[in-house]
What does this fold into?
Amino acid sequence: MLGFRIYLLQRISAMIMAPLVLLHLGVMIVVIQGGLDSAEILSRTRGSLFWGGTYGLFVLAVSVHAAIGIRVVMFEWMSFQGIKLNLVSWLVFAVLLMMGARAVYAVVA
Amino acid sequence: MMIKPHRGQPLWIAFLLHRISGLGLAIFLPFHFYLLGLALEQSETMDGLLRWSDYPLVKFAEFGLVFLLAVHMFGGLRLLALEFLPWNDRQKTLAAAAVALSFLLALGFLMRAV
Amino acid sequence: MQEPTDSLEISVWRGDATGGGHIIYQVPRQPSQTILDVVTWIQREQDPQLAYRFSCRVGMCGSCAMMVNGIPRWTCRTHVQKVVQDNQLTIEPLRNLPVIKDLVCDMSEFFTKWKAAGGQFMPRKTRQDPVEPLLPDSPKRAAANAAIECINCAICYAACDVVTWNPGYLGPAALNRAWSLLNDERDSGQQARLEAIASDAGCHNCHSHANCTTYCPNELNPSASIAGLKRLAARAVFTGNL
Ligand code: HEM
Ligand code: SF4
Ligand code: SF4
Ligand code: FES
It folds into this structure.
């Protein structure tokens, strides 16, 4: 089920993501013209502390946010409860965090 | 989960849209991360996958994706304002504005991409 | 306006906790006829076994709520003319509550949650103290007043999908009541109430889809009240009071 603190965590992570997503969408609209390739992406991000920090923060926030979001949907629509519900929530969190961290490392380092 | 009569009103639809877009994003995100992770050792594979975006159908799917992200974000901002700022009576207008804004943004993305 | 000679085709849910189904009745159309009039006519003229609830007939008591064409309504103040489609109507017991018989459902859990959310007024003073002055224009009193005219009809409760999906959820009526009392300066039970509305069954389960507000016959806004509770509880967490 959903404790009040979990609810607050989801809202705080949403507040963190909103400006980051806006920035990301803005940049994508600018750079999308003419298509994307890996060299172009990497020239922007490699070694950049700013993009590393921005994307890193996003990955952390989205892992928390989506894990709680899916937790609520699992509970309300699929009757997941107790250990099963906790397990799924942590799994979503861990998978997003790991894949996200790898992606950030790949484009920044 | 059927659409029953009591579920027809605009703010209920806004709730459903927010939930579906959130789920859609959560499903898409791992693929997105996987693609970027390829930059680590296989940038040819990554470019191969990125070249998919030359296809019109894929461009259209990207439009859908940007729309999902935008509509979840603007809709989410409406909810955050509803929950943490003084009450505003124009929730239906705000929800409609969130959808319209997202559509415009996604359309702008599509226009730049083609 | 329809001719009084027209006949209505009314599909009424009949049954009990073990199950049931719809039965069709032909009911004569009357001018200014309400849904409650229709149900009463069926019971008096066609089937005395039909169970339903009502009391005041003027929108005060909150006992006559039913699902009409899939939407929860106070039947004594709902005119047939407003909701009829092709001379047909479907009348069913309220959603989200166990049925006792036909159109009567068991309201126990609704009132249990009302109490669990801290719905009882806890006075700070006794009858020996002088009456406390209340400023009707103060923001807190205005907020309390805006939420106070609830008739306990459970229409919002029947309209709320979070109640359907999460049966533990306190629901819009109980939380709206708690919001009204949390804004009442004369009350002494605020900390316990705050803990109740921020418990696992509490306000943060609400997804703000405003079915409650859409269908509340008294035009209350439980959705806004619950948003107020979320702010109160969030502030309490950050100030170490929860
Ligand atoms: C960009 C900024 C974002 C904001 C402002 C935001 C806001 C919100 C809010 C306020 C909720 C709660 C809705 C409710 O309980 O009624 C929510 C739910 C959710 N969000 Fe986000 N979100 C954002 C990004 C994302 C992203 C990127 C994802 C995908 C990974 C996501 C996935 C979800 C999911 C799955 C839910 C649960 C849906 C539900 O309970 O109906 N969100 N979001
Ligand atoms: S706004 Fe909240 S309480 Fe009202 S119907 Fe929706 S979920 Fe239920
Ligand atoms: S809030 Fe409105 S709909 Fe809900 S019980 Fe009270 S009067 Fe009925
Ligand atoms: S009979 Fe009292 S409210 Fe309808």
Q: What stands out?
A: Chain C touches chain A through 14 residues (CB under 8 Å). The mean pLDDT of chain C is 96. The beta strands of chain C are 7-16, 19-28, 65-68, 71-74, 88-92, 99-101, 104-105.
